[in-house]
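C-alpha cells as discussed.
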C-alpha cells in the first residue's frame, strides 16, 4: 500500500498579506526612517508545527518581536502534545493535573465552545487524532473497529475541571486532550496584548493561517489579508481589510495525507471519528477574540454548510465568518460587507 504523507505547511504562507505576498502589507518599513525610536521588525520562524511570521512597527520593535516569539515558544512548550514535558502531555499521561493559568483558561473556553457547538469542538479528540497518526509521522486510515472503540473516550462532556483548584481530570482510562484547535488563536491574542503593553500600535501576526492584526498599517490603511482558495494554492477567494482583529482560517488543505487515492485531513468530526466532510472546504472567522476565532473556525468547518450558516445567524453580531463550500459557493456574514473584497459572488448571511 502506498502511503503518501503531504504536509502543506507552506500553503499557509499564501494565505495572508502579512508577508507582503499579495498586498504589500507590512512593506512600509521605510516609513521608520526619521523617527528616533519607531522601527519595523520582522520574524519568520517555526513553532507549534507551523511557519509563523510577525511584522511589528513601533517603539523598540526588535525587542517587542523577541518578546512575542518568547511568548509563542512558552505556550508551545506548555501545550505541545509532541513534547513529553508539556503540561498537556503530563496531563494525558497522568489522567489528572493542576493546570497552569493559561491551561485553565484554554480548557474552560474550550468546554464552553463544546457546549455551544453541540459537541463539534471537542478537545478530548486526541485518541482519534492519534489513531489516524496525526500525532506522529505514520498517518493512515484506522480500522473502523478502532474508531468505534475510541469514540466514547472522545467526549469533552466527561472532562472534569475544578475551577477552584484548577485541576483537570480525565475520568476514563485512555482519555487524552489536544488543544491544537485553539492554542494558536490564544497565542496570537496573547501576543497582541504583549505588543500593546510595550506601546506597539501596528502589527500583523500570521501563525500559519491564523492571522491577528493590531492597528493599521503604517500608511494608515487597514491590513489586507487574502483568503486562500482551498482548492488552488495560488488563488484567492477574496481580500479582507482589517484593523484590530483576528482572521483565522480552518481548511482541510492545511494538513492532510493520501491513502488509496483519497485525501484525509486533520479536522475530525467527533460524531464519526472521520475527517469532517460536511460541505465546507474553508472557514474563516473574524473577531478581535483570537481564541474564539480559532475555536469557531474548526467548529464551523465540522458543523458543515447548513449548521454553520444557522450558527452564524444565531450568533449574529458576535463574530463574522466566511464559509466556502465544496460546490465553490461563498457565504459571508453581513458584517463584512464593507471590508471584504471577494473575487467571486457572495451570499450574505446573518443580515
Ligand atoms: P490548524 O491548527 O491547522 O490551523 P485548526 O485550527 O482547524 O487548524 O485545528 C485543527 C487541529 O485541531 C487539529 O490538528 C487537532 O489538533 C485539533 N482538532 C481536530 N479535530 C478537532 C475537534 N473536533 N475539536 C477540537 N479540536 C480538534
Ligand atoms: Mg482552529
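Sequence:
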Amino acid at each position: 500500500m502506498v502511503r503518501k504523507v503531504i504536509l502543506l505547511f507552506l500553503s499557509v504562507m499564501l494565505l495572508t498579506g502579512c508577508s507582503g505576498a499579495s498586498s504589500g502589507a507590512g512593506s512600509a518599513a521605510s516609513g521608520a526612517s526619521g523617527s528616533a525610536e519607531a522601527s519595523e521588525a520582522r520574524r519568520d520562524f517555526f513553532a507549534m508545527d507551523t511557519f509563523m511570521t510577525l511584522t511589528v512597527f513601533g517603539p523598540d520593535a526588535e525587542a517587542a518581536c523577541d518578546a512575542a516569539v518568547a511568548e509563542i515558544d512558552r505556550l508551545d512548550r506548555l501545550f505541545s502534545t509532541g513534547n513529553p514535558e508539556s503540561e498537556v502531555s503530563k496531563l494525558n499521561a497522568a489522567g489528572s493535573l493542576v493546570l497552569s493559568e493559561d491551561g485553565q483558561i484554554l480548557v474552560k473556553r474550550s468546554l464552553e465552545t463544546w457546549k455551544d457547538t453541540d459537541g463539534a469542538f471537542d478537545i478530548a479528540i486526541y485518541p482519534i487524532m492519534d489513531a489516524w497518526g496525526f500525532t506522529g509521522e505514520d498517518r493512515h486510515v484506522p480500522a473502523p473497529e478502532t474508531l468505534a472503540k475510541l469514540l466514547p473516550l472522545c467526549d469533552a462532556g466527561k472532562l472534569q475541571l475544578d475551577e477552584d483548584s484548577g485541576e483537570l481530570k480525565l475520568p476514563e482510562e485512555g482519555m487524552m486532550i489536544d488543544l491544537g484547535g485553539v492554542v494558536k488563536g490564544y497565542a496570537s491574542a496573547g501576543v497582541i496584548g504583549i505588543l500593546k503593553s510595550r506601546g506597539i500600535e501596528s502589527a500583523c501576526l500570521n501563525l500559519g493561517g491564523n492571522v491577528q492584526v493590531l492597528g493599521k498599517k503604517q500608511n494608515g490603511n487597514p491590513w489586507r489579508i487574502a483568503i486562500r482558495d482551498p482548492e488552488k494554492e495560488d488563488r484567492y477567494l477574496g481580500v479582507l481589510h482589517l484593523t484590530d482583529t483576528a482572521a483565522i482560517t480552518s481548511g482541510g488543505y492545511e494538513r492532510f495525507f493520501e491513502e488509496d487515492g483519497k485525501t484525509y485531513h486533520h479536522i475530525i468530526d467527533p460524531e464519526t471519528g472521520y475527517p469532517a466532510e460536511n460541505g465546507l472546504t474553508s472557514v474563516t472567522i473574524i473577531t478581535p477574540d483570537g481564541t474564539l476565532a480559532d475555536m469557531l473556525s474548526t467548529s464551523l468547518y465540522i458543523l458543515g454548510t447548513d449548521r454553520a450558516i444557522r450558527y452564524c445567524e444565531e450568533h449574529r453580531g458576535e463574530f463574522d465568518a466566511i464559509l466556502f463550500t465544496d460546490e465553490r459557493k461563498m457565504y459571508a456574514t453581513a458584517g463584512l460587507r464593507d471590508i471584504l473584497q471577494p473575487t467571486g459572488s457572495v451570499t450574505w448571511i446573518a443580515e
